[in-house]
Amino acid sequence: MNTRRMTRRDSRILALCALFCWHVGKMDPDESFNILASEAGHEYAAESGNVEYARELVRATVANVQVIDDAIDQVSQGWPVSRMPRVDLSIIRLAYAEGLVLKSAPIEVVLNEAIELSREYSSHASPKFVNGVLMGLFRKKGWSGDSAKRYNI
């Protein structure tokens, strides 16, 4: 039995994987989440709170995907959602849901986590792309970004 605890970051990774499977594999989002959460249980001493947080992120993203994609299309110059790399799109959708739908973490944290996920799971150009799209989305919703200077974002 593993004793490594599931962190908030691990929750985001689990949610990202489930969203990617849902989008690319055309799987039922709850089914893909349940399969991945079961696998995560072998890796972590999964606390129900962090697993449920990941589930909440997936459900919020899926429930609001059309609103999220419309917002992305409005700010992503020359990059319609249909042409975006699927991992990057999943990261952007997840961050939008966490920061603007659930409002469960400060925008600065959401932005930083999304950039880190893109560094780890996507291409070398992805952090800059994800950052640019998310900055556009968050600013459009009224976030000033002044506090981001503290975080070197």
| Rg for CA atoms | 15 Å
CATH architectural group of the largest domain: Orthogonal Bundle
Total helices: the number is 7
Number of strands: 0
Compute the number of structural domains.
Answer: 2
Judging from the principal axes of the Cα atoms, what is the shape? globular
Order of helices and strands: HHHHHHH
**CATH class category name of the largest domain:** Mainly Alpha
Determine the structural class based on helices, strands and strand pairing.
Answer: mainly alpha
Average pLDDT, all residues: 88
CATH topology of the largest domain: the name is N-utilizing Substance Protein B Homolog, Chain A
The separation of the N and C termini measures 38 Å
Reported for the largest beta sheet, the result is: none
Strand content: under 5%
CATH homologous superfamily designation of the largest domain: NusB-like
**Residue share in helix:** 55-70%
> Uncertain runs with pLDDT below 50, 5 residues or more?
none
Task: Describe the fold and architecture.
This protein is mostly helical and 153 residues long. It folds into two domains: 1-62; 64-153, NusB-like (N-utilizing Substance Protein B Homolog, Chain A). 69% of the residues lie in helices and 0% in strands. It has helices at 8-25, 29-43, 48-63, 65-75, 86-101, 107-121, 126-140. α1 packs across α2 and α1 crosses α5. The longest helix is centred in the N-terminal third of the chain and has 18 residues, at 8-25. The protein is globular.
